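Contributing new complexes? Match this layout with magnesium ion.
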Amino acid sequence: MGARPPRARSPVPTWYLAQNRPVVARSKKRRSSPSNDRVSDGSDGSAVPHLNEQHYLGEIFCNRSLKMRSIKAIGFDMDYTLAHYKADTFETLAYEGALRRLVHAGYPREILDELRPYDPQAYIRGLVIDKKRGNILKMDRHKYVKLAFHGFQRLSKQERDALYNPAAVNWAAFNEPDFAVVDTLFSLPDAFLFSKLVEFKDQYPNLIEKPYEQIYRDVRRAVDLCHRDGTIKRRVAEEPAKYIEYDPHLIPTLKRLKRSGRKTFLLTNSLWEYTNVVMNFLMGNPPGLLELDWLDLFDVVIVGANKPAFLTDPRLWMYRVDPRSKEGYLSNTEGVIDGNAEAFLREGKVLQGGNYTHLQEILSLNSGSEVLYVGDHMFSDILRSKRQLGWRTMLIIPELTDEINEMLRSEVDRQRLREMRLLRDELDEMIDRAEWELHCEYERSEHEADPHADPSRRQRIEALRQSVETAETELREVKAALAAETERYHRRFHPVWGQLFKTGYQNSRFAEQVEQYACLYTSRVSNLRFVSPEITFRCMSDQCPHDRLHESPMRRILERRLQVVQNVSDLDAASS
Ligand SMILES: [Mg+2]
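Output block (do not edit by hand):
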């Protein structure tokens, strides 16, 4: 008998496994954990996708081609980028803290009972909060509001159209100060708390007299204070495994990128004390053990970065942090880099604040296009860095795993929807053709001395009218069935808000922003382990409607008309 091969060591620390036994059968997850991805966790010695199932494998998608060879520095945000928080526990912590703060600030004590418990599944990213009206909206890429709720009460199409038609709202706006976009997972407790308070105020107007927009400001302030004053961070520091997902592939992925010769940096709004706790957890260290070896993963670490201002305001000053002091003792960076980045970094590479000019000087970069920045926040991380600085961007979308897996599971439903849409289009075309033929009959009769002389023409006109009427009845039925089927399909993704990337069958506003601002997007940073650090990411070819000429409904209409008349000039004559 040959010697048994050595068992591959699990990369997951044993203390973490003991505290996090696998949880079986939670029906519907809004967001994914590393265990959701259909990839090996490495415990069997492999780190490759399982290809025997139709699942998201951790692909990185490309909107704008990117040669990694021309990238000289790769930077990472920390919260929800390197560290993925567990929705149930982490968001509940923010929600509960904010609720107590609101009572402390004068809100009625009754909200402590009425507004509990927090539901982490209630909202998705990409929604827009209408602060003045107390509504939450989902819109398509044209900013057309397709779904709206007042508190938790769904608005009818008529109500929606009355409030959000182009004459009522400046569509270019849908932005601050009257609107707020839920563009980070941190904002989901805000949306839930605001909706709950809107519902509470409507029910007990004498208990909360403030207008909705003031309520929104109070909610924002309360949640923000919980993040700043240590309410959340203290608890996370005590039990990080309760609040943060552990991804065994993350640190090896970062080490590999560092080994590839590129400069790497961490750029986070979190302060030193909290950053150190989270990074130690991600390194696999047990709670309470705070070591500094994670600093070797990066050439520069910037905490308390104050994004998006860091990316736009060149006047912000930079400080050096003493990582050996627990709270992160600060000292001035006099003269700043002074043209000698190496000497500057020898003094210490953990910094606080500053701005993009400091960072690019420290990294000795000539242009923004040499930086790839990886973040989760559409506005602060991705939009600003790309627009202002020309940095290349990778957006982390943890929801992508569930979104794609559900899409793959529902292929049969999507085929049915395609067939129903085709039937609708054919009925539309049938009506259009019959109307056109009617028009031609009327035209011909106008040029005759006695238009009523030909009885067969009257019959043809009557038959055409009948067929239009029948097709219109059928069309109404097909449209109603299609709307119901589309809604049923969307409920597979989320019972209320549907698919993250779609609104109806158009791209959602969120999808539009991903396409516009993220050069690359994927579910988690460790998916970079599947490709070489020298890879060229290539995008698929863009398609305008005219690129799919033969699928165009207008093309089909014209082709059928051309079957009736002989050529295009006859068609012109018949239509004039
Ligand atoms: Mg973040």
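Reviewers usually confirm one structural detail per submission. For this one: Residues 1-10, 21-29, 38-47 have pLDDT under 50 and may be disordered.
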